[in-house]
Amino acid sequence: LALYFHIGEREEKCIIEDIPSDTLVVGNYKVQRWDIHKHDFLESAPGLGMFVTVRSPSAEVLLSKLYGPQGTFSFTSYLSGEHIICFQSNSTRFAVIAASKLRFHLDIRVGEHFLDESAIQAKEKVNEVSDRLENLIEQINHVMKQQDYEREREEKFRKTSEATNSNILWWAIVQTLILLSVGIWQIKSLRDFFIAKKLV
């Protein structure tokens, strides 16, 4: 429901809404004050407050609160039926001046089914836990990626070490064979030298 109407300052204006039980109702409004000099409604009416009163079909007051020149109000219907929503400005000006004309813009949205406060809080907690869980999962994924990276580095280092050790082993074997060959050659050379000199 979206509408606007004209009311005088300090004048009370009421509308009737047929609302099902256990239903959340949210209203947005804006008040504009008539400007005598500009002959037009000003965009806003600073300093002007609005009393919002809501009564149930059983005449129980569901809401009675003072708001600013624009705002949002909400209430929950506990009974199905005609609810009376009233608006009145809190103008403190003299009665003669207080008859100034106001333009009142109103938008009322009627919810399908009202979730009680505990359910809303539970939902907020679930969302908070869900956010923390997602954050925790992201951290776990980061740790797992870091572990995979470290594992890859360790595997690469191990292969490099094994290759280096293998090369060292073969080099040691080659060195040993060379030393043995040199040793045998020296012994054979000395033996041939001694035989040639008839020392043996």
Order of helices and strands: EEEEEEEEEH
Low-pLDDT stretches: 94-99
How large a portion of the residues is in β-strands, by DSSP E?
Answer: 35-45%
CATH class of one domain equals: Mainly Beta
Count the strands?
9
Shape: rod-shaped
Radius of gyration: 46 Å
Annotation field: number of helices: 1
- Termini separation comes to 130 Å
Class from helix and strand fractions:
alpha+beta
- Major sheet attributes: 5 strands, antiparallel
CATH architecture of one domain: Sandwich
Overall mean confidence score, pLDDT: 82
Fourth-tier CATH superfamily name of one domain: GOLD domain
Helix share, percent: 40-55%
CATH topology of one domain: Jelly Rolls
List keywords for this structure.
about 200 residues; Jelly Rolls; five-stranded antiparallel beta sheet; 9 strands; coiled coil; TMD11 protein; transmembrane helix
Description of the molecule:
The protein has 1 helix and 9 strands. The protein is α+β, with helices and mostly antiparallel strands. The protein has a domain at 2-115: GOLD domain (Jelly Rolls, Sandwich), CATH 2.60.120. Strands 1, 3, 4, 7 and 9 form a 5-stranded antiparallel β-sheet that branches. The chain has a 4-stranded antiparallel β-sheet with strand order 2-8-5-6, with no helix packed on it. The radius of gyration is 46 Å and the shape is rod-shaped. Residues 94-99 have low confidence and may be disordered. Residues 12-108 form the GOLD domain. It is found in: Endoplasmic reticulum membrane; Membrane. The chain crosses the membrane at residues 168-187.
